[in-house]
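Review form for a predicted model. The reviewer records the input and the model, then writes brief findings.
Reviewer: anonymous (R2)
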Amino acid sequence: MRSPGRPLGWRPTIRPCAWFALLATATAQAHVIPFELLAPVGAGNRSDGGVTLQWSDGPDPGGTATVWFYASRRTIAPFEYPRADAGVFIGNAAIADSTNVLRWNGAGLDAGCYQPFAIVSDPMDTNVHVAGGNFTLVDGPNVPPSIWITSHVSQPVAADGTFTLRWMVDDDDASTVTLRRFDPTGAEAIIAQGITMPAGGGQGAYVVDLKPLPARQTVYFHAEVVSADGRRCDAFWPGFLFTTQSYDAGIDAGTDAGTSPDDGGFAPDASADAGPSVAEAPRGCGCGAAHGALLAASLPLSVLIRRRGHRRPSGLGACRDKNSNASRQ
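Model under review:
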């Protein structure tokens, strides 16, 4: 018996964009190799030149995938593709090699903090993975500062519409911290500045009021530390917030309940409010906002917390085998 209200011969139709989304998803799942940079993590990874990278990766049945490692002198923005030719080349390894540890001699480079990233490439696909921390190259007794935002990617938004941003500073001298928020276009706004940190660094926290933000806005948090001698380091939070509706009487925190290959197996904490879900349209599809449109209409304001995933890089012409001071262990 046919469903009432549906004419004889009725069948569902899928717009071209939806077909593209299904095809893109199937292709990505067929070729994306699971990969995650495990070290370095956070701030305070000091070194006089020797740096160790550690990672986990998935199977490569064809034996054709290679990972290329780079280090960026500035933190990598989540709304930009890191370019291979904009980073310091560290080394490369075959995914089929099970060692998953690479030691690199960075002696001779400028002192300061560096954020590693990896480009995993095979004949079918290329993906970028960013380390969850940075390392600090030291050139003498005066150690450059480093900073990392430590708020968990599944940390819920408080019921009063605030979000507590936490960070860690590693600096022998006194320093100051500036907090900013960015949108996907790169537009920025200062949240707070001149936050003093004592000599030796340590933990810091600041409560960010999200209520003044407009609806349907993606928010990235950024922190920068400046030492007494003027040297600096910056970092982006590994997650982002998405405001779905304007503020009325309260706020609900949501997490992305799905786990995709590009989030390293991330799943929200069991204690987090499940909140609304978002369907993300593929880039360039034109059938919806970049961060989704299927949102619960009954909530006064919901903020979706998600972890940043892969970014497809540009400028991969620099991904070639070069001489490097890196060695597999």
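Findings: The chain is about 5% helix and 40% strand.
Further findings: The first helix runs from residue 16 to 31.
Recommendation: see findings above.
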